């Protein structure tokens, strides 16, 4: 028995809601994966704010129709498609998928969409090399701390330099007075 019209509308609404909060959407070919393997992929994505949804390509096309941000996804919708969405840790989610793909060797990444742009397989995989949000915050904090230290040393050096200049001037005055 096929899906009812109401059921299809619910699936489309769910897909739209899923995409609304996402930064990145990735389309993968899931053909050959068992339910347990798809569950494993979902389990790997969940802690980093990712999800994996399987729906008919037609319903996915309807969900992105008219949405300029996700419209480019249509070029990847062919065959058995699963939609991975990422809300926060884009690099972590791509790493999780690559790890899953390395273990199972059954899926193929077709491409992705981020900020209204279609991304090739290579571009999506390059996102895995980006540092995580926590790493970036640590790097920024370290740079700010180093800058603050340099400013503090510079400010501390001003009185010392001034004191040396005054001392040299006083010694010069005493030398001139003695001559």
What are the main properties of this structure?
179 residues, alpha+beta, 6 helices
Helical content class: 55-70%
Q: What's the arrangement of strands in the largest beta sheet?
A: 2-3-1-4-5
Mean pLDDT: 84
Main sheet summary: 5 strands, antiparallel
Q: What is the overall number of helices?
A: 6
Low-confidence stretches: none
Structural class, please?
Answer: alpha+beta
Rounded radius of gyration (Å): 29 Å
Structural shape: rod-shaped
The percent range for strand residues is: 15-25%
Name the helix and strand elements from N-terminus to C-terminus, one letter apiece.
Answer: HEHEHEHEEHH
Number of strands: 5
N-to-C span: 114 Å
Written account of the structure:
The chain is an alpha+beta fold and 179 residues long. The chain is built from 6 helices and 5 strands, in the order αβαβαβαββαα. The protein has a 5-stranded antiparallel beta sheet, sandwiched between helices. The radius of gyration is 29 Å and the shape is rod-shaped. The N and C termini lie far apart (114 Å).
């Amino acid at each position: 028995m096929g899906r009812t019209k109401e059921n299809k509308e619910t699936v489309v609404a769910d897909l739209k809601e899923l995409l609304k909060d996402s930064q990145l959407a990735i389309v993968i070919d899931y053909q050959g994966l068992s339910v347990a393997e798809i569950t494993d992929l979902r389990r790997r994505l969940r802690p980093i704010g990712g999800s994996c949804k399987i729906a008919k390509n037609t319903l996915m096309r309807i969900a992105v129709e008219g949405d300029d941000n996700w419209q480019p996804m249509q070029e990847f919708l062919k065959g058995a498609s699963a939609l991975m969405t990422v809300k926060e840790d884009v690099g972590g989610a791509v790493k999780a998928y690559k790890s899953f793909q390395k273990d199972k060797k059954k899926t193929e990444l077709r491409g992705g969409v981020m900020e209204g742009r279609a991304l090739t397989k290579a571009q999506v995989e390059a996102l895995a090399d980006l540092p995580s949000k926590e790493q970036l915050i640590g790097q920024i904090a370290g740079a700010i701390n180093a800058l603050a230290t340099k400013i503090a040393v510079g400010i501390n050096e001003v009185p010392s330099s001034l004191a040396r200049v005054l001392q040299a001037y006083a010694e010069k005055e005493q030398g001139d007075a003695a001559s």
